[in-house]
Structures are given as C-alpha cells and as structure tokens.
C-alpha cells in the first residue's frame, strides 16, 4: 500500500483581498479577517498563525479551521480563519504557517500591515454628529485642488 504525500498550495487573504506585496493599512478599531487556505495537500495540513514572527496567544474563538476532502483526487483543503480587532497603532506582520506531517518544509505566507489612528473633526448638525477623519479631509481637499487646477487648464 502506498501513501501519497502532496504539498499544498497556500493562499492568504485579508478582509477579502488577496495579499500580493506591499503594506496593508488598517484603521485602529477595525476588524481584520484573515483567511489562510491550503489546497491540494495530502495528508491534511495544520495551519497556525503568527504575529511579528511569534506564535500568537489567541483564544479558540479567534481561530476556526475547516478541513474538506477533494472529490476529484485524494487531497484535502484546509481553511483557517483568524478574526482580530486592531486595537492599537502598530506596524508588523501576520503570517499563516502551514505544517505538513510528511517531510515537506513548512510553508509560510506573510502579510505586512500598519494600523493607524486617525485624528477626527467632530461636527454637529441639529442632532446628528458627523466625524470626519483629518486624513480623509486632506485627501479630499487635495483631490479637489487637483480637479480645480485641471478644469482651469493650468
């Protein structure tokens, strides 16, 4: 009897977006949903999470894993979902590490992130409070200046 060992293909998405390169920005207080998917591996793999190259101290409700066999061949897909609230301003990395029980090396998918806090202006119109991010305001204001300049033909 032969046992087939196949290393999986690993993908990492953050808030529904595939991660390619560069640094992703999140706003302090925003929820991060990271999904690590290892497909086409045999036997099934184990997925663990690391933050800043350290094993995370996450409670079980933060991480969920699903293992599904592929019907066409005898490989497996394993998906692990990590949900975190970005509580403080920081720069770092989040990694999903895929460990295979056979002698294949661990596979690691790493995303670089920055968590920023924004200064806000608070306006009150009648009984409605409006918070405007200072950064958003500057971007909009600069965008309007560029549009006005282009419309004037300068």
Automatic annotation (TrEMBL):
Coiled-coil segments: none
Lineage: Eukaryota, Metazoa, Echinodermata, Eleutherozoa, Echinozoa
Entry's transmembrane regions: 128-148
Origin species: Stichopus japonicus
Keywords: Disulfide bond, Glycoprotein, Membrane, Receptor, Transmembrane, Transmembrane helix
Entry's localization field: Membrane
Protein name: Ig-like domain-containing protein
Domain called Ig-like: residue spans: 8-111
Pfam families per UniProt: C2-set_2
